[in-house]
Amino acid sequence: MSGLDHDRRGATDSMRVLGISGSLRRDSFNTRLLEAAGSLLPAGAELTLWDGLKAVPPFSEDDEHRPPPAVQALRDAIAEADALLIATPEYNGSAPGQLKNALDWASRPRGACVLAGKPVAVTGASPTPFGAVRAQDQLRNALKLSGARPVERSVPVPRAPAQFAQSGGLADAQLGHDLRELLEELLAAASPGARWDDAQRASAA
Ligand SMILES: Cc1cc2nc3c(=O)[nH]c(=O)nc-3n(C[C@H](O)[C@H](O)[C@H](O)COP(=O)(O)O)c2cc1C
Fold it and tell me: Which of 28, 54, 64, 75 could form an S-S bond across to 108 if both were Cys, CB 3.0 to 4.6 Å?
């Protein structure tokens, strides 16, 4: 969705949030985190999980104007979403290569990419006490450079195995509260009144 379409959105339209998990693991904590976040969204907003990450080939500038089908599908899904919610694992102090690779595809062609002006919230879970905070910081920075509008708030989820109840929901009320605040900020950024600031416009040009 372009900035213009974004401005035309009516107050009664529902808000479409695309959830992107950076993990390919079957029982991924980050995918579970997105599912839990989706259940916290208010009426009028819905989260769709994107499941095409494994099919995205390595980025090549030679192909950025003729993207492979899996990349086109990713770009279409981002374009159709009002906002993105990314949950990232941390591998060796960084965001996983497969997630960074997909976002690099989405960041091109420069000046006309689907990430331009897109509100994005980033969270992340890991079994360590740090909760993938370094990967989240890196991604927010890369998203800013791509012209997206990452919200400043971060929600690191440490000690991930203890954060989820057997039922699949969240075990910790504080985490639910923090995720709700993150989602509120994301939806506010995606609401009709929100505008790009000059710095974001310049970096997307
Ligand atoms: C190659 C590799 C490197 C890792 N490096 C880190 C790390 O730097 N920091 C961290 O908190 N966890 C690290 N971990 C542990 C992951 O946080 C853990 O596997 C986590 O469950 C992955 O997220 P997922 O459950 O969504 O798949 C690493 C795991 C792998 C496989």
Answer: 64
Distance CA(81)–CA(57), nearest Å, equals 22
Query: Measuring from atom 6 of ligand 1, which residue has the nearest CA?
Result: 91
pLDDT tens digit sequence for 138-159: 999 999 999 999 999 999 999 9
* Nearest CA, atom 3, ligand 1: 91
Query: Can you say whether the dihedral through the CA atoms of 160, 188, 42, 83 is positive or negative?
Result: negative
Please tell me the distance from the alpha carbon of residue 84 to that of residue 115, in angstroms, as a whole number. 9
Quote the radius of gyration of the chain (alpha carbons, Å).
Answer: 16
- Looking at the DSSP bridge assignments, the partners of residue 121 are 85
Q: Retrieve residue 89's tokens.
A: 């694992």
Question: Rounded distance, CA 190 to CA 149, Å?
Answer: 10
Q: Is the pLDDT of residue 167 over 90?
A: no
Q: Could you tell me if the CB of 126 is within 6 A of ligand 1? A: yes
